Amino acid sequence: MIEINSKLPAQGVTIFSIMTAMAQRLNALNLSQGFPDFPAPPDLLQALSEATLAGYNQYAAGDGLVPLREQLAQLFLNRDQLKLDPITEITITAGATIAIFSAIQAIVHADDEVIIFDPSYDSYAPSVQLVGAKAIHIPLNAPEFCVDWNQVKSAITDKTRMVIVNTPHNPTGAVWSKQDWLNLIELIQDKNIVVLSDEVYEHLIYDGEKHYSALSFPELRDRSFVVGSFGKTFHVTGWKTGYCVASAQLMQVFRQVYQFANFCGVTPVQIALAQYMQQHPEHIAALSSFYQNKRDLFISGIQDSKFRLIPSQGTFFQNVDYSDIRPDLNDVEMCKFLAEEHKIVAIPVSVFYQQAPENLRLIRFCFAKKDQTLLQACEILNQVK
Fold it and tell me: Helix, strand or coil for residue 382?
């Protein structure tokens, strides 16, 4: 009999799979996972069709097609006045998650420590665990989910090798301010610590807030990986195309790992994205107002309900507090209650923690949906007592 010892023995089926299966089984309205239920831009879909029909169906360069990397470089130049070398500092990846995984694999070694802010995206800690390192979880302060910088200072040791930042933040929608970044710089500038900045929602930011990329700070320029997502930006999450940006020195070690994690990205997808970005710069420019309108529609639609909320600053997620409805239920139980009794599916925020606060009564809804879907969701939630 073969003996199998899992490297992730405690890892089961994710809550996202569970809730999606529940939505399908109950024929419930699914506002759990972060994907749109509306179509991608027609010109983008047409560009993909034309690329495949034109024969661009073989392997792309492992680091990504140059025209797409050039479009990204232009984006950073326009927004952050940051001049990037598309050849040595940008890699196109098969989604953002594999970029995060590869950056951790490239830099973090066994017995190192990695600081993670909870609640956090569920791939961070397992990726750290797989290299034999230790994830140091620091809880963000609810309800604004801001960083306690004294806690961060206390958590940094000689073993700290990486700090993972996520802004705008999933699942809370919080956005790092310039002062947050300056606080981090003060704590790590004289230490051998790398920053991994997950910025997949970089263009989804509201109410006049500004997105600050790690790379926009000269002190972090040579010690940061920035990861982004074309899927989030262009409503094509199933295309699984993202990117990693870093200094040439960091990118070299990133590519040493990434080339064996994924040989290359999908060729016609990269061609379509590059063409669309060049021809339609207005898409990204309009993205914040597009999603803010959806956020506001959802918020206004449940303002007379018993749910309480703080408007999301970014991402396409809105957390709601149900303490005035069923405080006796934890958030996992509440999500099951909503699915089974009201036919609407959300995600419990506790699953994003290593150890969630016992009094946490927050659930997450995705508002990247058609207006009709959001109005239907509001009608359901207004009936929850």
Answer: coil
pTM here? 0.96
Handedness of CA 182, 184, 186, 191 (dihedral sign): negative
Q: Please give the single-letter amino acid code of residue 319.
A: N
The residue type found at 41 is P
Q: How far is CA 369 from the centre of its chain?
A: 17
Confidence of residue 215 (pLDDT cuts 50, 70, 90): very high
Domains for the chain: give ranges and CATH numbers: 15-40+285-381 (3.90.1150.10), 42-280 (3.40.640.10)
Distance between CA atoms of 172 and 352, rounded to whole angstroms? 10
**How many Cα neighbours within 13 Å face the side chain of 183?**
14
Cβ contact 312:173 at 8 Å: yes
CA dist 187 and 112 (Å) reads 18
The string of pLDDT tens digits covering residues 79-103 is 999 999 999 999 999 999 999 999 9
Q: What is the Cα–Cα distance from 375 to 369, expressed in whole angstroms?
A: 10
